[in-house]
Every structure is written in C-alpha cells, then in structure tokens.
Amino acid sequence: MKKFVVSSAVPFLRRLRRFVSMGSALMVAVGLLVLAPLFTPSAALAADTSGNWNLDDGSGHRLGAVLFERSDINSPSGLRLRLNAESAGLKLDHTKPLVMTDGNQQTWSLNNLSQELLTTPGGKIPVDSSQYNAGCLNPIPTDGITMQILVPSSAGDLKFALVPGQIQTLHSLTEATKGCSKTGISG
After folding, report:
1. What is the pLDDT along the chain (187 residues), one digit of tens a residue?
2. What is the domain extent for residue 50?
3. CA dist 78 to 23, 72, 101, 132, Å?
4. CA R_g for the chain
5. CB crowding 60-93: b at 16 or more within 10 Å, else e
6. Domain count of the chain?
7. Are residues 47 and 139 in the same domain?
8. 3-state secondary structure of 14
C-alpha cells in the first residue's frame, strides 16, 4: 500500500509545481498590465508630439495649434502652423508674422499665410484663426532647448512657451525638410 501512496504523490507534486509556475506567470502578466500605464507617455504628451497642440500663456489666452503639411494645388505646398483662438473674443492678426525664439538667442520669423484660410474668393478670413509657413526653419531648432512663440493678436503679442514634445516635433519635421529653400522664413 505504501508503494501506491508514493506513486500517486509524485504526479500530484508535478501538477502542483506546474500550477504554481502557471500562477506565477499569470501574476507577472497581470502586474505588467497594471504597471504599463505608469511607464508610457500620457495622452496629453502624445497629442503634443503629433502636431496637435494646446497652448496657454498663463494669462487666460488659449490657442489650439495644428502643424500639418499643405498640399493644395492652388497654393504652395509645405509645412504650416495653424492657430485657432480658444479664448472668447481673442482675434488673431492676419498680417504680421509669428516669431519663434529659443534659449540660444536664435529667432525665426514665420510668414503669415492666413489668406490660405479663405474658402471662397472675396470671402473673409476667420478672425479667430491664422496660419503661418512653418517649413524649412533655418537653422533647425535645437532639440532640448526651450522655445517660445510670439503670436500677434487683438490683445497684443502673446507669448507661449513650447513644451519638449512640441519642440521635438518642430525639430524632427524641419530636419526632414532641410533640403528645401528658406521661402517664407527668416532666421
């Protein structure tokens, strides 16, 4: 009878060991799923690095910004920065350039291309939107350096600080277009 008990205990121990190892693997998998959000970029940072930005000057003026490639057959193609006022009553200037500065005392002036916002000939440009030529920043903004933009508006020149993800996006996109001419941008 003892032989029978010993021989039946061995398979039980094997099953127990297999169950414990599977349980450990399951605990590790659940732990990774729970901890993964802590080690991945937030949705807000992801939005900032994609070219869709939210800007706040700290004085109650807010802008939505979109960095995109223009490919209309009726207008020159290239990288554009479109700003949309999100603060009530704020009107963006359609004639003055946008000025970018960095921590290295470098300045860029982006031509105002708000006329590209016209949907019909003779129409009106939306007062809460403006558009700028953002292609071919020369020299290319240094990645990791602080940057600010000065936006001409009905409230004067508004100063917005760019966050690292926004600066990295500008750096990457300008790096990709470094073979282009400087049309529309002075640095």
Report:
1. 555 555 566 777 777 777 767 767 666 666 566 655 554 444 333 344 467 889 999 999 999 999 888 877 766 778 889 999 999 999 999 999 999 998 888 899 999 999 888 877 788 899 999 999 887 677 777 777 889 999 999 999 999 999 888 888 877 776 655 545 444 444 4
2. 43-186
3. 55, 10, 21, 10
4. 28
5. ebbbebebeebeeeeeeebbbbbbbbebeebebb
6. 2
7. yes
8. helix
Which 3 state secondary structure label does DSSP give 66? strand
pTM of the predicted structure, to 2 decimals = 0.67
**Does 9 share its domain with 75?**
no
Q: What is the CATH classification number for the domain harbouring 180? A: 2.60.40
Query: What gap in Å lies between CA 131 and CA 68, rounded to an integer?
Result: 11
